[in-house]
Amino acid sequence: MASAASVTSLADEVNCPICQGTLREPVTIDCGHNFCRGCLTRYCEVPGPEPEEALACPLCKEPFRAGSFRPNWQLASVVENIERLRLVSTPGSDEADTCREHGEKIYFFCEDDEAQLCALCREAGDHRAHTVRLLDAAAEPYREQIQKCLECLRKEREEIQRIQSRENQRIQVLLCQVATKRQKVIFEFAHLSQFLEERQSVLLAQLEKLDGDILKQREEFDVLVGEEICRFSSLISELEEKHARPARALLTDIRSTLIRCETRKCRKPEAVSPELGQRIRDFPQQAVPLQREMKMFLEKLWFELDYEPADICLDPQTSHPKLLLSEDQRRVQFSYKWQNSPDNPQRFDRATCILAHGGFTDGRHTWLVTVDLAHGGSCTVGVVSEDVSRKGELRLRPEEGVWAVRLAWGFVSALGSFPTRLALREPPRQVRVSLDYEVGWVTFVNAVSQEPIYTFTASFTRKVFPFFGLWGRGSSFSVSS
């Protein structure tokens, strides 16, 4: 068997002078030199002499005509044999590169049949009329198609990965929301359970009192009735005895006896006094607070589960320079001393106000505002449109994109087209603000007593932001979910 070195030496003898690779479809020109058909064809296509003029051999510079080169089948056979020897003499060579039918090296690809061919297959009648190209040349367009497919697939994979990341984040948010709702259900039902136990104790104590009063009046009734029965029994016995006596004895003091019996009237006692009876009839009224509390519980539970708690953080870029913002961006205090805040288009320059980060363009959201007002201070809470005026005077009314209420020392006002002072049972110190973007509701509720404060109805078309205003030395507010 030929050694690898000798095979390599033979292979060097059948190299193309143009591409320096093994001859592919060798052709011979007038001077006798051999070249790859493809290499010589491209050489002849290089701009130069006119078609009728002779070309120079790339190797010896002898003239030849462009159409005068002839296929050298014997040399092609030699090349195939050398390639076969190279495969045999090379350890680990892939025998799949040889034709199964002829055992020859595969050099060509039939694009019509998508078949790989050796030189003998190429000359067979089945492929003569087909488009047959060298393997490398035929593979190049497919490489380009594969590259385009790879680019598309990689983009699709990246898009799927982005979707996966986004949906995983969404799932985490939903899991957090479910966990929050679970805690709210547990807390609200625990609160309801405690309230029901307290009301049960109160109602049972009242029933126990009614029960004791009924038994006490029954005892009094039994005593009174016993006394009456005893008196009437005594009279009956006296008359029976009188009736059984002889005429003389019967007539003795007869008139006195009859007068005493005739004037004796029966007292008709009542077992249950009217007052106690009224208390028993009025007892169902004691359940009215329970009914009211249950209604409030169901409304609050529905509200807590329907609205998403908003994670509110205040935006320092919008804060008026007189407002001191805490490091966690959840608490604000008023100060007459101006802060060194750079001016920017987002900052309020006259109204001592601040907005929250983010804003909303859909959904139901709720947040809690805890207010601590010094004497004469005030706090404004609500929502504003993203295009609300930040510079100059700010008119707090819906026409200007502001839906808010003002809490001051001792009163609360709804800032509608004309401010309206609200009649509330108690001034709120914690206000629950709720936004239903699609329906267009901005609702304010006393978070402690659950007393409704006010509801604005609007038609939102732009992003809205939680809005806060503060005035008065020592006044402050904080936000939470």
Write a brief structural summary:
It comes from Ursus americanus (American black bear). This protein has helices at residues 4-13, 37-45, 73-89, 119-123, 135-244, 247-251, 254-262, 274-282, 288-306, and strands at 26-28, 34-36, 55-56, 63-64, 70-71, 106-110, 115-118, 132-134, 308-309, 323-325, 331-334, 353-355, 364-372, 378-385, 402-408, 411-414, 420-422, 430-436, 441-446, 452-457, 464-471, 476-480.
Structure description:
The chain has helices at residues 4-13, 37-45, 73-89, 119-123, 135-244, 247-251, 254-262, 274-282, 288-306; strands at 26-28, 34-36, 55-56, 63-64, 70-71, 106-110, 115-118, 132-134, 308-309, 323-325, 331-334, 353-355, 364-372, 378-385, 402-408, 411-414, 420-422, 430-436, 441-446, 452-457, 464-471, 476-480. The chain has 481 residues and is an alpha+beta fold. The strands form 5 sheets. Strands 9, 10, 11, 13, 18, 19, 20 and 22 form an 8-stranded mixed sheet that branches. A 6-stranded antiparallel sheet has the order 12-21-14-15-16-17, with no helix packed on it. α5 packs antiparallel against α9. Mean pLDDT is 84; it is low at 91-95.
Summary tags:
alpha+beta, single chain, elongated, six-stranded antiparallel β-sheet, 481 residues, Jelly Rolls, Herpes Virus-1, eight-stranded mixed β-sheet, 40% helix
Tell me the Rg in angstroms. 53 Å
The percent of residues in helical segments reads 40-55%
Instruction: Count every beta strand, where a strand is a DSSP E run of 2 or more residues.
Output: 22
Secondary-structure arrangement, i.e. CATH architecture of the largest domain: Sandwich
Task: Estimate the mean pLDDT confidence.
Answer: 84
Biggest pleated sheet: 8 strands, mixed
CATH topology of the largest domain: Jelly Rolls
Fourth-level CATH superfamily of the largest domain = SPRY domain
Low-confidence stretches: 91-95
